[in-house]
Design brief:
about 350 residues, alpha/beta, three-stranded antiparallel beta sheet, 13 strands, globular, binds flavin mononucleotide
Length: about 350
């Protein structure tokens, strides 16, 4: 717990509109990331490194805690996030087309239960503009992400019909491939109409096969390694649906799964979550945990899992790891616990990777 944040800063921040405060946080993190001495000083104090780097998806991670997608949608703040202790950052969701998302207000806090409902709908600058932004930084300093791998989360543009979704994802894949340490394929956000149907048998095999092929072709053409591809799923799937997804991932030899996105369901006894959108934070935890545990058992622990959903304290981060996650990600937890929450989780998990255990 960070008493200064939770007793003084958070109450002041929470008097303001959530998205306005989010934009302020993004600006602060962008500045931290863009000023080298500031970035280095922050990194020195915050970045917890395991004794040996953690190898997953063929990448090296300094610690097991990542920033979940949706926080840095337009790739401004990821260097700042890395300096605040995150061991990887997932930017996006990025879509082929630039889009404004749903009308504001679209982010709602529920402090008494440490929950958030968001109905954002992928507001983002579009793949080309975001690629140009990343190129400015990574074009010259590709090695920055060696310390903190950069994941790029891609999703479908709102106006693209489901039948043309693969082309939309492929456009973003190609535009952003030079900058991604890994890609997360988002078929699970509840705020783009029909997006979650892409998780089903009618669409998922073709979509993932098309992305895999583009990845193979690029690797051959450039003589480079394939980029790890991870699928992000919803917490509202049945176990049968999850089984079907796992067999597709196995068939296509995909690299991992990110479980889970926000939920459209609402826990009983909480009439306050009446806003439309995806619920995240503490009330999501048990659901995400159950799914991570299920996937880990179903795959004999062989498929790397990024566990995300409701990690609002270090105990829950540990439980997510015990359930079979290889990495964890946080979003809502940082809103409630403050900017150095990643560091405290990384610190709490470090014993797992220490040689003296
Ligand atoms: C305001 C907000 C926006 C989000 N936007 C995205 C997004 O664009 N893409 C995505 O894959 N997940 C998005 N998420 C979901 C998170 O990445 C994460 O999966 C979910 O919030 C559960 O984690 P948490 O309980 O730690 O917040 C968003 C979450 C929030 C709260």
């Amino acid at each position: 717990m960070d008493p200064l944040f939770e007793n003084i800063i958070r109450p002041a921040l929470f008097t303001q509109d959530p998205e306005t405060m989010h934009e302020l946080a993004l600006k602060a993190m962008t500045i931290v990331g863009a000023v080298p001495p500031l970035r280095a000083a922050m990194e020195y104090f915050n970045l917890i490194k395991t004794p040996k780097p953690i190898k997953i998806f063929g990448l090296e991670f300094p610690n097991r805690v990542g920033l979940a997608a949706g926080f840095d949608k337009d790739a401004y703040a990821w260097r700042g996030a890395a300096a605040m202790g995150f061991g990887h950052v997932e930017i996006g969701t990025v879509s082929m087309l630039k889009q404004t998302g749903n009308p504001r207000p679209r982010i709602f806090r529920y402090p008494s239960s440490e929950a958030i409902v968001n109905g954002c709908g992928f507001p983002n600058d579009g793949a080309e503009q975001i690629a140009a932004r990343l190129s400015k930084v990574l074009g010259k300093h590709r090695d920055i992400t060696k310390k903190c791998p950069l994941g790029i989360n891609i999703g479908k543009s709102k106006i693209t019909p489901l039948e043309e979704a693969a082309a939309d994802y492929l456009f973003s894949f190609s535009a952003l491939a030079d900058f991604a340490d890994f890609f997360t394929i988002n078929v699970s956000s509840p705020n783009t109409p029909e997006l979650r149907r892409l998780q089903g048998r009618d669409f998922l095999p073709n979509l993932l096969a098309a992305i895999s092929k583009a990845n193979e072709d690029r690797a051959k053409k450039l003589g480079v390694a394939r980029i790890p591809i991870i699928l992000k799923i919803a917490p509202d799937l049945s176990f049968e649906e999850i089984d079907a997804i796992l067999s597709i991932l196995e068939e296509l030899n995909l690299d991992g799964i990110c479980a889970t996105n926000t939920t459209v369901s609402r826990p009983a006894g909480h009439p306050e979550y009446e806003k439309t959108g995806g619920l995240s934070g503490k009330p999501l935890f048990e659901k995400s945990l159950e799914i991570v545990r299920y996937i880990s058992k179903a795959t004999d622990g062989k498929l790397p899992i990024i566990g995300v959903g409701g990690i609002t304290d270090v105990r829950r981060a540990g439980e997510m790891m015990n359930a079979g996650a290889s990495l964890v990600q946080i979003y809502s937890g940082m809103i409630y616990r403050g900017p150095f929450f990643a560091r405290s989780i990384a610190n709490s998990l470090i014993w797992r990777d220490s040689e003296w255990v």
